[in-house]
Known about the structure:
The chain is an alpha/beta fold. The protein has one domain. The protein contains one helix and three strands. Strands 1-2-3 form a three-stranded parallel β-sheet, covered by helices on one side.
Amino acid sequence: MRILVTGATGFLGSRLVWTLWRKGHTLWLLTRTASPPPMQAHLAALAGLFGSPARRPPPSP
């Protein structure tokens, strides 16, 4: 299953990511920065914010 995890680098999100990854799910991580923590370096991280569109970073090329 493909799953988007928001807050993927936070306390709960990081544990959720680890559990879902071990179960074989395809994960997309939404974080405030584009670099995932070291244990998640093999996963794709998307930088972004859930807020007003003006606060969202531009899409990556």
